[in-house]
Design brief:
Order of helices and strands: HHHHHHEEH
Largest sheet: 2 strands, antiparallel
CATH class of one domain: Alpha Beta
Radius of gyration: 17 Å
Strand order of the largest sheet: 1-2
Strand content: 5-15%
Distance between the termini: 31 Å
Number of helices: 7
Shape: globular
CATH superfamily of one domain: Glutaredoxin
Number of strands: 2
Length: about 150
């Protein structure tokens, strides 16, 4: 459930595929969904190294375009090595849970806001879930502006 409404995961994935196709972005069909926890923790670490955007882009591509298992430490280390991030240090960060609490805090905050799926766009107490057409996001912003003092 999201905001009292059921979340249609197959529909969201289909919409994502359609949007990617419209934009000419590669998306690989998947039969499995992988846990993103380790990638999220490494994302925090990459941000601290000044490589956050590059890491997030690479993980997005690995998951959606290449269909890779982003919970696999070997996949994450390989991704880091392509970004000039030390793969052995990445493994240490995961093993020691260096960013575990920070990610827990982020996830707790998201849950308090009612986020149950990604992407979720929030503005002025309203939300939109999933890959959406530009017009839907534009309308969300318009409504938020109308509600702001």
């Amino acid at each position: 459930m999201f905001g009292g409404q059921p979340v249609n995961i197959p529909g969201m994935l289909e919409r994502l595929r359609q949007v990617a196709e419209e934009l000419g972005l590669p998306v690989k069909e998947r039969t499995r969904v992988y846990n993103s926890r380790r990638a999220t923790e490494l994302g925090k670490w990459a941000e601290a190294q000044g490589r956050g955007d590059a890491f997030h882009d690479a993980i997005f591509r690995a998951y959606f375009a290449e269909g890779l298992n982003i919970s696999d430490v070997a996949v994450l280390k390989e991704t880091c090595s392509h970004l000039d991030l030390d793969p052995d240090e990445a493994e240490r960060v995961l093993t020691e849970g260096e960013y575990r609490i920070s990610v827990d805090d982020d996830w707790d905050y998201s849950h308090k806001l009612g986020v149950t799926a990604v992407p979720t766009f929030l503005a002025a107490g309203r939300s939109v879930v999933g890959a959406q057409p530009y017009e839907v996001l534009e309308r969300l912003i318009q409504v938020a502006k109308e509600q702001s003092p």
